[in-house]
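Structure tokens please, single chain.
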Amino acid sequence: MRRDSKAPLDTAPVLLAFSGRVNYAFVDGNMDETAGDYSDITLVQLDDGRYYLSLDPFGNSGRPHDDDNDVVVADRLAVFPQVLGKDGLTNQ
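Here you go.
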């Protein structure tokens, strides 16, 4: 999904819970360099039913790529909306 870059962004924090067989590969120091701020991510369901997340995708195709960084691949994914309250983030 692509968004109109001129439209304002709404903040919608979520908790992503990966389960089943989970494989992950994170580049040392990459998370520190970005401070958690990403201009793009890739989150898709693969043809085999597993879920693929890259927090540092190669290019802007929105598809998995061999050169993606900070990747999680898992059998299942649950998405939990979060609410930002006076005590921080909580499950909704």
